[in-house]
């Protein structure tokens, strides 16, 4: 072969190699960006669709209400870090549904409720101080 043809082939091979490397780098950065974007989207959807349980004190009763957009299933309810209420374990609470825990809490100086509940995907824990 002529020296010019060998030189042209060498330059062509170098250009093809550099172009391939740049393509792989750009492709991998695009994949990482898409992956992080999908994770953010999934996290946002989870926050929007998850159950949110709120606790209120109404006279002698504690009212637990689901203000979220999906069903929450109660794992445990503990009052003042000692009184565990077993009646509501594994009880589903649909969106905009509530129930009362009937008891006399007027003698309690401090009143705090700890609720552990779960949805299809995650487990949540709320500590609410009512007094």
The oligomerization state is single chain
Indicate the proportion of strand residues.
Answer: 25-35%
CATH class of the largest domain: Mainly Beta
Mean residue pLDDT: 88
Describe this structure in words.
By secondary structure, this protein is of the alpha+beta class. The protein has 2 domains: 1-49; 51-129, Immunoglobulin-like (Sandwich). 36% of the residues lie in helices and 34% in strands. It contains 1 helix and 8 strands; from the N terminus they run αββββββββ. The strands form 2 sheets. Strands 3, 4, 5, 7 and 8 form a 5-stranded antiparallel β-sheet that branches.
Give structural attributes.
1 helix, alpha+beta, 34% strand, 2 domains, 5-stranded antiparallel beta sheet
Summary, kept brief:
This protein is an alpha+beta fold. Helix content is 36%, strand content 34%.
SSE map:
Elements: H1 3-49, E1 53-58, E2 61-66, E3 72-79, E4 83-85, E5 92-93, E6 98-102, E7 112-118, E8 123-129
Antiparallel strand pairs: 1-2, 2-6, 3-4, 3-5, 3-7, 7-8
């Amino acid at each position: 072969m002529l020296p010019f043809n060998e030189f042209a082939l060498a330059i062509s091979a170098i250009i093809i190699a550099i172009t391939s490397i740049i393509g792989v780098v750009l492709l991998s950065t695009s994949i990482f960006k898409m992956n992080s974007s999908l994770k953010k989207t999934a996290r946002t959807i989870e926050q929007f669709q998850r159950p949110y349980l709120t606790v209120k004190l109404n006279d002698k009763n504690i009212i637990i209400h689901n203000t979220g957009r999906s069903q929450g299933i109660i794992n445990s309810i503990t009052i003042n870090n000692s009184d565990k209420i077993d009646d509501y374990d594994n009880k589903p609470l649909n969106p905009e549904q509530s129930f009362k825990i009937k008891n006399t809490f007027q003698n309690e100086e401090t009143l705090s409720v700890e609720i552990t509940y779960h949805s299809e995907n995650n487990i949540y824990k709320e500590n609410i101080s009512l007094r």
